[in-house]
Amino acid sequence: MTIDQIVILGVNINPILVEDLELQIDKFIENKNQALILNVNVNCLNIAYKNSWLRSFLNKSDIVFCDGAGVMLGARLLGKTINERITYADWIWQLAEQASKKDYSIYLLGARPGIAESAAKKLIEKFPDLNIIGTHHGYFDKSIGSHENEMIIKKPFRVNNTMEDYRKFVSKLQSISKDHSDFLLGLEATGIYGENLLTFLTDRDFSVKLLNPYQIKMYREGITMKKV
Protein backbone atom coordinates (compact mmCIF):
# COMPACT_ATOMS: atom_id res chain seq x y z
CA MET A 1 0.00 0.00 0.00
CA THR A 2 1.28 3.45 -0.95
CA ILE A 3 0.65 5.89 1.87
CA ASP A 4 -0.34 9.39 0.78
CA GLN A 5 1.30 12.44 2.33
CA ILE A 6 0.19 15.98 3.09
CA VAL A 7 2.87 18.55 3.94
CA ILE A 8 1.90 20.94 6.75
CA LEU A 9 4.51 23.39 8.05
CA GLY A 10 7.25 21.26 6.49
CA VAL A 11 6.11 17.99 8.08
CA ASN A 12 4.94 15.03 5.97
CA ILE A 13 1.67 13.75 7.42
CA ASN A 14 -0.08 10.58 6.31
CA PRO A 15 -3.89 11.01 6.13
CA ILE A 16 -4.35 7.40 7.15
CA LEU A 17 -7.41 5.71 8.64
CA VAL A 18 -7.04 3.67 11.80
CA GLU A 19 -7.82 0.35 10.09
CA ASP A 20 -5.13 1.04 7.48
CA LEU A 21 -2.67 2.01 10.21
CA GLU A 22 -3.28 -1.30 11.96
CA LEU A 23 -2.74 -3.15 8.68
CA GLN A 24 0.58 -1.37 8.25
CA ILE A 25 1.60 -2.39 11.78
CA ASP A 26 0.75 -6.00 10.91
CA LYS A 27 2.93 -5.81 7.80
CA PHE A 28 5.89 -4.31 9.66
CA ILE A 29 5.75 -7.05 12.28
CA GLU A 30 5.10 -9.92 9.86
CA ASN A 31 8.06 -8.82 7.73
CA LYS A 32 10.19 -8.30 10.87
CA ASN A 33 10.86 -4.69 9.85
CA GLN A 34 11.73 -2.05 12.38
CA ALA A 35 9.46 0.94 11.90
CA LEU A 36 8.94 4.33 13.48
CA ILE A 37 5.31 5.43 13.71
CA LEU A 38 4.68 8.92 15.09
CA ASN A 39 1.74 11.21 15.67
CA VAL A 40 1.45 14.99 15.49
CA ASN A 41 -0.91 17.63 16.81
CA VAL A 42 -0.79 21.38 16.20
CA ASN A 43 1.60 21.99 19.09
CA CYS A 44 4.04 19.42 17.71
CA LEU A 45 3.85 20.99 14.24
CA ASN A 46 4.60 24.44 15.66
CA ILE A 47 7.61 23.12 17.56
CA ALA A 48 8.83 21.22 14.48
CA TYR A 49 8.48 24.38 12.37
CA LYS A 50 10.87 26.19 14.71
CA ASN A 51 13.23 23.25 15.27
CA SER A 52 14.73 21.59 12.22
CA TRP A 53 15.95 18.55 14.19
CA LEU A 54 12.38 17.64 15.17
CA ARG A 55 11.09 18.30 11.67
CA SER A 56 13.81 16.05 10.25
CA PHE A 57 13.06 13.35 12.81
CA LEU A 58 9.37 13.34 11.92
CA ASN A 59 10.08 13.24 8.20
CA LYS A 60 12.41 10.26 8.54
CA SER A 61 9.72 8.15 10.21
CA ASP A 62 7.72 5.51 8.37
CA ILE A 63 4.30 6.91 9.25
CA VAL A 64 3.15 10.20 10.80
CA PHE A 65 -0.55 10.24 11.57
CA CYS A 66 -2.90 13.04 12.57
CA ASP A 67 -3.59 13.41 16.29
CA GLY A 68 -5.75 16.50 16.45
CA ALA A 69 -8.56 18.50 14.89
CA GLY A 70 -6.14 21.41 14.35
CA VAL A 71 -4.06 19.31 11.98
CA MET A 72 -7.22 18.38 10.07
CA LEU A 73 -8.07 22.09 9.81
CA GLY A 74 -4.57 22.88 8.56
CA ALA A 75 -4.96 20.29 5.82
CA ARG A 76 -8.33 21.78 4.84
CA LEU A 77 -6.79 25.25 4.53
CA LEU A 78 -4.32 23.76 2.08
CA GLY A 79 -7.12 22.20 0.05
CA LYS A 80 -6.37 18.71 1.39
CA THR A 81 -8.41 16.27 3.46
CA ILE A 82 -7.60 14.22 6.53
CA ASN A 83 -10.68 12.13 7.23
CA GLU A 84 -9.75 10.91 10.68
CA ARG A 85 -7.73 11.95 13.68
CA ILE A 86 -6.25 9.11 15.67
CA THR A 87 -5.74 9.91 19.35
CA TYR A 88 -4.06 7.44 21.67
CA ALA A 89 -6.74 8.01 24.30
CA ASP A 90 -9.21 6.36 21.93
CA TRP A 91 -6.99 4.17 19.77
CA ILE A 92 -5.02 2.50 22.58
CA TRP A 93 -7.92 0.13 23.25
CA GLN A 94 -8.02 -1.03 19.62
CA LEU A 95 -4.23 -1.26 19.51
CA ALA A 96 -4.19 -3.33 22.71
CA GLU A 97 -6.88 -5.64 21.34
CA GLN A 98 -4.89 -6.08 18.12
CA ALA A 99 -1.72 -6.86 20.08
CA SER A 100 -3.55 -9.26 22.37
CA LYS A 101 -5.10 -11.25 19.54
CA LYS A 102 -1.90 -11.45 17.51
CA ASP A 103 0.52 -11.91 20.42
CA TYR A 104 2.38 -8.66 19.82
CA SER A 105 4.31 -7.27 22.77
CA ILE A 106 3.95 -3.70 24.06
CA TYR A 107 6.27 -1.50 26.12
CA LEU A 108 4.76 1.63 27.66
CA LEU A 109 7.20 4.52 28.00
CA GLY A 110 6.55 8.10 29.06
CA ALA A 111 4.63 10.46 31.38
CA ARG A 112 5.20 10.94 35.10
CA PRO A 113 6.31 8.06 37.35
CA GLY A 114 3.41 5.67 37.92
CA ILE A 115 1.30 6.72 34.92
CA ALA A 116 2.56 4.03 32.53
CA GLU A 117 2.12 1.36 35.20
CA SER A 118 -1.44 2.53 35.85
CA ALA A 119 -2.23 2.51 32.13
CA ALA A 120 -0.79 -0.97 31.75
CA LYS A 121 -2.92 -2.26 34.61
CA LYS A 122 -6.11 -0.95 33.00
CA LEU A 123 -5.17 -2.52 29.66
CA ILE A 124 -4.42 -5.88 31.27
CA GLU A 125 -7.76 -5.77 33.09
CA LYS A 126 -9.55 -5.47 29.74
CA PHE A 127 -7.20 -7.73 27.76
CA PRO A 128 -5.74 -10.37 30.15
CA ASP A 129 -3.67 -11.99 27.37
CA LEU A 130 -1.98 -8.73 26.42
CA ASN A 131 1.82 -9.06 26.62
CA ILE A 132 3.12 -5.86 28.23
CA ILE A 133 6.82 -6.55 28.58
CA GLY A 134 7.60 -3.44 30.61
CA THR A 135 6.81 0.12 31.61
CA HIS A 136 8.89 3.18 32.46
CA HIS A 137 8.25 6.84 33.11
CA GLY A 138 9.61 9.52 30.79
CA TYR A 139 11.92 11.18 33.32
CA PHE A 140 15.16 9.31 32.71
CA ASP A 141 18.62 10.08 31.33
CA LYS A 142 18.08 9.85 27.57
CA SER A 143 21.68 10.57 26.59
CA ILE A 144 23.30 7.94 24.36
CA GLY A 145 25.16 5.35 26.41
CA SER A 146 23.61 6.26 29.76
CA HIS A 147 22.74 3.31 32.00
CA GLU A 148 19.03 4.22 32.16
CA ASN A 149 18.77 4.66 28.42
CA GLU A 150 20.56 1.40 27.67
CA MET A 151 18.37 -0.57 30.09
CA ILE A 152 15.19 0.73 28.45
CA ILE A 153 16.21 0.01 24.86
CA LYS A 154 17.55 -3.48 25.58
CA LYS A 155 15.33 -6.12 24.01
CA PRO A 156 13.84 -8.92 26.14
CA PHE A 157 15.31 -12.32 25.36
CA ARG A 158 14.49 -15.97 25.91
CA VAL A 159 16.76 -18.32 27.86
CA ASN A 160 16.35 -21.95 26.82
CA ASN A 161 17.16 -24.73 29.25
CA THR A 162 20.61 -25.42 27.75
CA MET A 163 24.16 -24.76 28.89
CA GLU A 164 24.78 -22.65 25.82
CA ASP A 165 21.88 -20.33 26.68
CA TYR A 166 22.97 -20.21 30.33
CA ARG A 167 26.35 -18.88 29.21
CA LYS A 168 24.69 -16.35 26.89
CA PHE A 169 22.52 -15.20 29.78
CA VAL A 170 25.53 -14.64 32.02
CA SER A 171 27.30 -12.78 29.21
CA LYS A 172 24.34 -10.41 28.92
CA LEU A 173 24.42 -9.80 32.66
CA GLN A 174 28.16 -9.15 32.56
CA SER A 175 27.64 -6.61 29.78
CA ILE A 176 25.73 -4.60 32.41
CA SER A 177 28.12 -5.19 35.31
CA LYS A 178 31.13 -7.41 35.87
CA ASP A 179 30.40 -7.48 39.59
CA HIS A 180 27.98 -10.36 40.16
CA SER A 181 27.03 -8.94 43.56
CA ASP A 182 25.23 -6.14 41.71
CA PHE A 183 22.48 -8.59 40.76
CA LEU A 184 19.65 -10.20 42.64
CA LEU A 185 18.00 -12.68 40.28
CA GLY A 186 14.50 -14.06 40.70
CA LEU A 187 13.77 -17.59 39.48
CA GLU A 188 10.34 -19.17 39.53
CA ALA A 189 10.38 -22.49 41.40
CA THR A 190 9.68 -25.04 38.68
CA GLY A 191 11.01 -28.21 40.31
CA ILE A 192 13.69 -30.09 38.40
CA TYR A 193 13.31 -27.84 35.35
CA GLY A 194 15.02 -24.91 37.04
CA GLU A 195 17.66 -26.78 39.05
CA ASN A 196 20.35 -26.69 36.36
CA LEU A 197 20.03 -22.93 35.86
CA LEU A 198 19.96 -22.34 39.62
CA THR A 199 23.16 -24.36 40.08
CA PHE A 200 24.83 -22.66 37.12
CA LEU A 201 24.14 -19.19 38.53
CA THR A 202 24.99 -19.87 42.16
CA ASP A 203 28.24 -21.59 41.15
CA ARG A 204 29.19 -18.25 39.58
CA ASP A 205 28.38 -16.29 42.75
CA PHE A 206 25.07 -14.81 41.61
CA SER A 207 22.44 -14.24 44.28
CA VAL A 208 19.27 -16.07 43.27
CA LYS A 209 15.89 -16.02 45.00
CA LEU A 210 13.44 -18.84 44.30
CA LEU A 211 9.91 -17.52 43.96
CA ASN A 212 6.68 -19.37 44.47
CA PRO A 213 4.55 -19.46 41.28
CA TYR A 214 1.72 -17.83 43.22
CA GLN A 215 4.04 -14.96 44.13
CA ILE A 216 4.92 -14.61 40.45
CA LYS A 217 1.24 -14.40 39.59
CA MET A 218 0.63 -11.69 42.20
CA TYR A 219 3.75 -9.80 41.14
CA ARG A 220 2.71 -9.93 37.49
CA GLU A 221 -0.74 -8.59 38.30
CA GLY A 222 0.79 -5.89 40.49
CA ILE A 223 3.12 -4.49 37.83
CA THR A 224 0.86 -5.47 34.92
CA MET A 225 3.36 -7.64 33.09
CA LYS A 226 2.24 -10.79 31.36
CA LYS A 227 5.56 -12.60 31.64
CA VAL A 228 8.40 -12.41 34.14
How would you explain this protein's 3D organization?
- The structure is a single chain.
- The strands form four sheets. A two-stranded antiparallel ribbon has the order 1-2. Strands 3-4 form a two-stranded parallel sheet. A two-stranded parallel ribbon has the order 5-6.
- Strand 5, helix 6 and strand 6 form a beta-alpha-beta unit.
- The protein is 46% helix and 15% strand.
- The radius of gyration is 22 Å and the shape is elongated.
- It has three domains: 81 residues, no CATH class; 54 residues, no CATH class; 67 residues, no CATH class.
- The protein contains ten helices and eight strands.
- The C terminus is likely disordered.
* Spatial arrangement of strands, main beta sheet: 1-2
Low-pLDDT stretches are 223-228
Order of helices and strands: EEHEHHEHHEHEHHEHEH
From the spread of the alpha carbons, the general shape counts as elongated
Count helical runs: 10
* Biggest beta sheet summary: 2 strands, antiparallel
Distance between the termini: 37 Å
Number of strands: 8
